[in-house]
Design brief:
This protein is mainly β. This is DUF4352 domain-containing protein.
């Protein structure tokens, strides 16, 4: 009886060890939702050769702590090999409608954000990018994109398809209250369903 109890105990400990190993392996993956506001480091323009004078210290590339307009954030999609470098190029606040048919509602204004997308992955990218964008004001209110064309430039296509290495550029327009101060803009792949979200500071 004692011998059987020891066997059962040993089996339980072994099984627990295997489960623990499996849990660790599962947890090491990027399976949870994350918001990243860290821009990619920009290459130094002076770093054209590997040779440096002995007295000269290597030049450090300054990377801002929080992404803002002009910065690029590397994002991943849900599928293997699905990656984008996303840049908030410019912000137009307020933005002016390019025609008389699309105007902001009473007490509201248009805010335009120009996005640049570069497919850095190994899989083709196909999506409606505006679906993955939203803007937040300093009070925490979030606003989704609206269908509007602005004088700042062409809108982002609603059907972007990029092979690896290809890029797309266009404006995404939001309708926000006139009294709201925009704070951040976010973008996620897979029409906003991807686990990783990029965030840029606007104020």
């Amino acid at each position: 009886m004692y011998h059987r109890t020891r066997i059962r105990l040993a089996a339980t400990v072994a099984a627990a060890g295997i489960c623990a190993l499996g849990l660790t392996a599962c947890d090491s993956g990027d399976s949870g939702d994350t918001v990243t506001d860290k821009p990619k480091a920009k290459a130094s323009a002076s770093a054209t050769t590997d040779e440096k004078p002995a007295a000269e210290k290597p030049e450090k590339t300054a990377t801002p702590g929080v992404a803002k307009a002009g910065d690029t954030i590397a994002l991943k999609g849900l599928e293997d090999g699905s990656k984008l470098d996303v840049t908030v190029v410019k912000v137009a606040d307020p933005a002016k409608s390019s025609d008389e048919f699309s105007t902001p509602g009473s007490g509201k204004r248009f805010v335009g954000v120009q996005f640049k997308l570069v497919n850095t992955g190994t899989a083709a990218y196909s999506d409606s990018p505006a679906n993955g964008a939203k803007i937040t004001d300093t009070d925490g209110q979030q606003f989704q994109p609206t269908f509007a064309d602005i004088t700042a430039g062409p809108s982002m296509s609603s059907d972007v398809r990029l092979k690896p290495g290809a890029k797309a550029l266009g404006w995404v327009v939001f309708e926000v209250p006139k009294g709201s101060k925009t704070d951040t803009v976010q973008f996620a792949m897979n029409s906003g369903m991807a686990n990783q979200t990029g965030e840029w500071k606007l104020s």
